[in-house]
Please model this.
Amino acid sequence: MFSETTTSLNMLEHTFCHIPSVGPRSERNLWNAGFHSWECVLRGADFPFSKHKADFLKYHLAYSESKLSEGDPRFFTNALRSNEHWRIFSDFRKSVVFLDIETTGNGSPRDHITTVTLYDGLKIRNYVYGENLSCFAHDIQSYKVVVTYGGKSFDFPFIRSTLGIPMDQAHVDLRYTLASLGYTGGLKGCEKKLGLDRKELVDMNGYFAVLLWREFKRKRDRRALETLQAYNMLDVIHLEPLMVKAYNLKVQETPFGDSMQLPMPKVPRLPVQPDRNLIERLSRRVHAARR
Model:
């Protein structure tokens, strides 16, 4: 039986698998033995294991408490496996921003970022190459945790190589968390399986984003840019409900799930609207090229 005091904690304070030599099985054994929070180990007694092991756990958990008190999420993401980074979310939610980029291609030396969107649960910020992209470097520094889908292999390296920004924040890549829950198939596939509706942007993908940028540059058509921005923004604002769904599903796998479920956030309205006729025209071009 877990007390109300214990289950009111966020998941990080129930976590032991960030400690060296403590894996998921050892963590589960600690929970089953009644050591279901840092407090239980640090202030408890009558350990069913050696004094050496008890001292080892206490040392690392005392340090963990100090890093949490300092507000240092990187300590935990550095210590946890990628598919366990979700555990920091509720503790650091006020310092979280969701991010996605669009580019001119897949990373050749001549490719560059076309748009970036940041969303912190309150405000949507969009940055456009040749307009306000230089502001991104300043704004991203306001956040301690960045949540992406696939950002570990694409967004972060691309930003570092093309913009020279270190991107040294704690990073939660939802690809790993969702895959550990059985949700694969890319961002769009995960959205569909988890009930998120893309509406008129349902048929768009990254290649459409490239075509929209080319359309904007060739014709200076703001409708093409706004459609690209809408696509980029939708990818980002959907990351928050995906993060919350993933968090709730993961804590449901623990003894603390019922008491730690987070409410689902509302998806905000896009500040720009996609051009449906333009999307249909590009879609016909794409299908014709595939024949």
Remarks:
- The chain has two domains: 4-70, 93-290.
- The CA atoms of residues 28 and 254 lie 8 Å apart.
- The first strand starts at residue 96 and ends at 103.
- The domain at 93-290 is CATH 3.30.420.10 (Nucleotidyltransferase; domain 5).
